[in-house]
Amino acid sequence: MTMIRMTRMGRKKKPFYRIVVTDSRKRRDGGWIEAIGHYNPVSVNKDLTLDEERLNYWLSVGAQMSPTVKRLAGKK
Hints:
The protein is of the alpha+beta class. The chain contains two helices and five strands; from the N terminus they run E-E-E-E-H-E-H. Strand 1 and strand 2 form a beta hairpin.
């Protein structure tokens, strides 16, 4: 199954996340198909960037969002 979830980037105690489309069987930071956004929780205003067009495309072809991405996308 194809999932839309976050992969951790950055360094120790300074996380930065990419929102990616990946196979659900891959590890969290394993290979991914496409990056469709990013999230920076350390920033003062918690930057979130999502490519809505690509998100809607992947949802239309059957990709599932992880609970965290679903929560973040709902806030946007």
